[in-house]
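Internal ticket #5521
Category: modeling
Description: The requester needs a full-assembly model to guide mutagenesis choices. All entity lines are attached below as received. Residue total reported by intake: 525.
Assigned to: D.W.
Attached entities:
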Amino acid sequence: MKFMLHAVQQALTNILRNKTVNFLCLGIIAFTLLVPGIFNYISFNLDRYISRLSENIEAIFYLRDGSEGGEVERMMQRIQGNLLVKEVGFTSRDAARAKFAREFPELQYILAEFSNSPFPASIDVRFRADARSVLQIESFIRDIEKNGIIESVQLNLDWARKIALIKKFASFAGLFLSAILLIVSIFIIFNVVKINIFYRRDEINILRLVGATDWYIKTPFLLEGLILGFLGGTLAGGLLLAAIKIFPVYAEFIFNIVKQLIDFRQLPLRIFWELVATGSAIGLFSSFISLRRFIRTAPK
Amino acid sequence: MIQFFHVYKQYFRSNEALSDINLSIERGEFVFLTGASGAGKSTLLKLIYKEEEPSKGQILIDSINSTLIPPARLYKLRRQIGIVFQDFKLMMNRTVHENVAIPLLVRGEKKAAVEKKVNSTLALVGLSHRKRYLTSHISGGEQQRVAIARAVIGNPKILIADEPTGNLDTELSIEIIRILERINASGITVIIATHDLNLINLFPKRIIKLDKGQLVLDRPSEAGS
């Protein structure tokens, strides 16, 4: 405990001693984490948007004429058994005719031409809201469609496909940019810690010669990286929050569609903690690598 | 006890810095290690506190083969040896107190104990009045005494001093050796590397002389003989 307090004190002293380098490093970490933070936030919002729309996904399986009641019943049970399905209903031919007459009273004269209902019976399915399930829903529908009693299926998933594609692109672009920026970030912290080690190489050498353990020497440097990463992550979270508060004012006028897609009201705590955790991990990892190199090459 | 058995040291692409050194230093001895510049004095000292590794041969410190000590355990050896460096190796931006306290702090000693030991050690080297001074603000002779205080505060078994009087006038040099004599009287083995023959002649101690990396003289203490 005493040792850790000493190490934290030492790390903070070192950060303040080399203010310019460390604050520059802090800014760069914050920027490099802000980019994945923005993409993560966009992705999160697209997920929510798809979820909201998914609540209205309906598939209507039109049945072949002459389908037997037992077959239809089994099919409905099979559909109901799927976890993606929220509700299953059956519309008979007569019910379909009645529904048409109810919804389009001005076209009733057309129905008068037919003695029997011209509409096929159908199984109507509503799905649960889950953004990730769009592709699964599609696959499930294709599977059901193969059944002999199904004549055709009415479904409009085009919007969901498009949103899913945008989300996929955003995730990919975010991942790609994040990977590059994270490598840059690691490289920068690695070098900042290296510079700090270089500045203090005489002191490190003295500590070694008076009997300090490797951990006694290394811990303040590791903490230095950890603190820089932690502060960088927190700053990135703060900047993201500020951007979220400021951006909608402009977005309302310029990108109305964006405003519809993205819920600017809040920054999910998950994204904030992810930024802080990633920053801390990068800081710790970079200083660890830097120290390992130094310990390997320094005189014993 | 320090024992060297057929120890050789050769630096990369150079002549041998030390060649076939055999010697033994008993616990509590006071030894002058002498020789011209480049004779191998500093190298021999570095081999004792393991800043350098021998190219060949064995070095035993208290019957432990130092070449077999892994880097992670090196601190245990270093805590038994106090070192006064030729260039002092002090932290100039820290106070005298902070410099002297370092060996105790790295061992995790309690603040009160550190304070007590720092005070008594500074009194031993006559620097109590400079306790709160920045090390860069005191004289060369005082810095030398800070280095000695730092070397002995951890109560080492061996004290090594590499040219501890190199930058000092005769009067100050004698004063430093007298301080080291007092430390030796408490049972600590003292090894001083120096090329100052006038100083050596003033103190009837054991002399080990090196020349071009070879041990050419090992004269016992006159006081003991």
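Resolution: model delivered.
Comment from assignee: The longest strand of chain A covers residues 85-91.
Ticket closed.
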